[in-house]
Each structure stands twice: as structure tokens, then as C-alpha cells.
Fold:
Amino acid sequence: MCGIVGYLGKEDAREIILNGLRKLEYRGYDSAGISLYKKTDNEFMIYKDKGRVAHLESITDFSYDTGLGIGHTRWATHGIPNQNNSHPHQSNTKRFIIVHNGVIENYKELKNDILHQTNFYSDTDTEVIANLIEEFSHTLTVEESIRKTLTLLEGSYALLVIDRLNPEIMYAAKNKSPLLLGIGQGGTIIASDVMAFVGLANDYVTLDDKSFIEVTKDGFIIKDIIGKETPYDIKTIDIDNFNVEKGEYAHFMLKEINEQPSVIRNIISKYFDGDKITLNGNAKKMINDSDRLYIIAAGTSMNAGFIGKEMFEKMAGIPTEVHIASEFAYNMPLLSDNPLFIFISQSGETADLRAVLVNIKRKGYRSLTITNVKTSTLAREADGYVEIFAGPEIAVASTKAYTAQIAILSILAMHVSDNTHLNLRKELSKVAISMENIIDKKEYIKDIVKEYLTKRNCFYIGRGIDYYASLESALKLKEISYIQTEGFAAGELKHGTIALIEEGTPVIAIISQKEINKNTRSNLYEVQSRGAKTIVISTKAVKDSSDLIVLDDVFELFSPLLTIIPTQFIAYYAALERGYDIDKPRNLAKSVTVE
Ligand code: F6R
Structure:
């Protein structure tokens, strides 16, 4: 994970890098650092510490002009978050200064084989890179030294390198970790995400794996690892600056929960012409040509995948399996004859998914990515992609991307089904209105949280599609409020887990389906008899007078699009009540680019 930003040009590098790091903080926020060129002293200064970008800003000297620098915001992989392990790191003589996102898998071997004379001052794998460059620079040019170093690295890296002896140039390199180059009016910016360019550069270049880049005040050259210049495409940024600001909301998460009705309407406008689905590209053909779908995802996106499975099977009759990416990558099940792999990923950068994509491509299988970021690695490398149009999701806890993914999965399932009766556009429009009805009642949900969520643990239960919604509801609550929460198949509790229910344990049941209404309610009586404090989230068609949250009736496979919203608010208010950092929960990062 981690986010990196570098700038060389006529504008204020410090402002550009700090601003970029703020936008990339979602990628990790254990520590932050920056190195800036101080022209008056012909010296590179380094500021770094454990903590957030706001803290880095407070320790950075603003008193001099600077047009060159590199910065980093960290999600710790090697070594605890402290000042020593913060980036930038330097080579032994301090000549080379680098920031790195990724994991160097063979760093111990490189230390033992080549750098046995070198001193190391941190626990990171990154210091090895700086010292290899220095080691080779005794006999090679700097460019050759960096490229030689790259040939030895196993693993992933997005790197920015500065040579103290040449403040006219910034070097960059990329393999597996994301890195993009922004072309601004006054200079060149290189960063882990296009977000860092917003307001600064309109055009950008997506860098390929094994690229090596030299940036000077006159522009940039992109080469491959051998040193041969490579062609590139220039694209235009289409992110609205407004979309990456909190505006009137206290937190991005609250903003993003509230945005869900407009995301659904946006998806309708992108994928429908009247009532007709207008999905371009090869998605329909790829699905029709396959005999089984394999949805590969992680976390919230996997929970959306479970709803997708229901849709593909129930609406289109296509057998569908859902797999945890990190498991599938190294323990593949027996596959059908014509599998299609569907990767669901908000960021499009999740390393666990990429490992599967690389593996299945090698075997010649077809792939489709469903993502919020069309410039992402998974979108570029799959055979096709479908964009979810949720707009930038900044809060680490995913909300609007989940509902957008489900909406897109329904459109795909409908697109390949024979059903001529269901008016999907109309059903999605109804969902948007019903979402607004819940959002209007958020203050009421806040009161429920105060009264019911008083313990260190909690359960969400449901059956069928409500069970899948329970999994996502539980993930939301645990990741931001740190209340230990399990999403459980309602009927399975009594087979062991019910032992955890004691006086006052909150159990939240999701009930939206007629066929399982009675069964889930029986499971509720079982936990109530053992002291649980129960909350029911139901829909009008199945409601009981004692249910605390009753939602509109919608097309039954769409119920998770509604039932999830009160649970997102439950998570939000539980975290708010406890005073936690809602948008940046501990130990997490938005884009998980390490396996
Ligand atoms: C939880 C959350 C994560 C992500 C997971 C996959 O709120 O956001 O569980 O869903 O890390 O990320 P993407 O969707 O970017 O592949």
C-alpha cells in the first residue's frame, strides 16, 4: 500500500506534494515523510515521522522555495510505524534518497549477497534499494545503477529516487504497484493515484510494469528496464475536484452513504437508454460464452459478489461461484470447461486479485473486471471492464461502491437473461427513492445505536440474501467501531456460536424475504431467550409491529441495496459515539496493494 508523490517543476513542490499526500492518505496513514530540494543551500532536506500528513506538515520547514521533492504516506509492512522506518530512506552515504510503495520479497537475500558491508538504519525492505543503487553507482551511471537494481528486485515497487549530486532530475520506476505521471503546466508530477493530480494536471500517463522514468525541467522520458524508450498514451483526467472534498459533511463516510441514491441514478443514466440496457464492450459475449462464472474479490467487494451470484443464478440461470481472492490465488478449485473470471474491486488495485488475474491469464482464461477506477491495473489487464460510476470513494470503509457494484451486477445479470418482464431501470429508480427514505431517518438510527450497541460484541443474522447483507453489515461495524461483530447465517447460530450470546448482546436480524421470515424470527426468539437485545431490520411485506427499522418493498434481489443503509449508519454512529477516526480506521488502508 502506501502512497507516493514526486514533483519537479516551476511550482511549489512542497505544496503540491503535501496536497497530493493528503489525497493519498487513504492508502496508508501510519507515518509520512518528504524530501525537498533547498536551492539556497544546494541541499536536500528530509522531514519524516510517525503519524499523519497533518503532522508532517507541522514539522516541515516552509521558509524556502523548492521545485523538487518526493513524499510518502505509509502503511507499515516491514517494521513498526516510527520515525526510522518512515520514508524517505537514504543510502549509506546519503547520496540517494528514495520513497517506495510495494514489497521487495528478496530483500534479505540482496542484503546478504550484495550489501553485507552496508549499515541499515531501519527495518524496511526499502533501504536495500537505495543502497543497491549506491553500490552500483561506483562503476555505473546513475541511470544504469537504478536499472540494474530494478533487474534484481523481486516483488512490487513504485519508486521515486533523488540523487543529491544532481538536483535537476527525478527518477521513477514501477512494477506491480500503481504509478502514474501527471503533465502539469509548470512541471511533472508522479504519484500512486490520479487523485494527487486533481487541480494540477489535466493530462496523465499510466505507467506500465517495469517502466523506468527520468523527469527533468524540460519534461520526461519513459524507458523500459533495459533502457529503451517506450511509447505512451496521454489521457485526460475526469475527476471533479468537488468530488474529493467533504463539503458540508463531518466525514467522507457520511457523505458517501448519503450519495448512494444519486450513484444509483448515475448508473441508470450511464447504462440505460429508456428501459433498454446499453452496455458496450464484450461483457455480454464473455458471459454468454462461459459455462460458469467465478467471482473473485475481497472484503466488501466479495460481499457484493455474493449478491451478484444470486443475481446471475436467479435472473440468468448461470452457475456462479464466489471466491476469496487470497485463497483462490494459491489454492485453485477444479474449474468448469469454459470459466469466466469476474474480478470485483472498487480500487482495481487489490494485489490479492491481481495475483489471481496473472495466474488465470497464464492459463488462457478470460476475465472481466468490475471497478470504480477505469485506469486501474485490474481494469487494464483484464479482457474487459465495466465501470461502476460511484465517484471517488475516500472513506476507507466502503459504502457507495458496494451498492454500485450490486447495481452493476444486476445490470449484467439482466443483460444476459431471457427475462422480458422485469423493468430493471424502474426497479433501480424505486431503490434510489427508498434509499432516500432511509437516509431521512438517520437520526432515529443514531438513537437506536446509543440504546442497543453498548457491548464489545455484536451479531448480524439473516438467511439467503439477507445473510449476505449481514456479512457486509458486520464488516462495516467491526472495521470502524472495533466492536467485534460476526455476520451469521441465522439458522447456524444454534450449532455452536449461540454460546456467545449473553445478557445484553446485541443481535441485529435482517429480514426481507417472505420464505425465510418465520425461520429467522424463530432464531431471534432463541437468542432473546438467552438475553440478547434484538433489533430487526425488515421490509414492509414481512414486517412485525416490534421491528425497529422497516424499509420499503423493492424487487427482492435488490433488498440488500436498502437493508445495507441502516447498517452503514449503525456502523457510522457506533464509531462516532466512541470517538474513533471514522474515515481512517486503525490498521487499515483503502487500497490493499500487498498480498
Ligand atoms: C471494507 C473495504 C475492504 C475492501 C477490500 C477490497 O470497507 O473497503 O474490505 O472491499 O479491501 O478492496 P477493493 O474493492 O478495492 O478490491
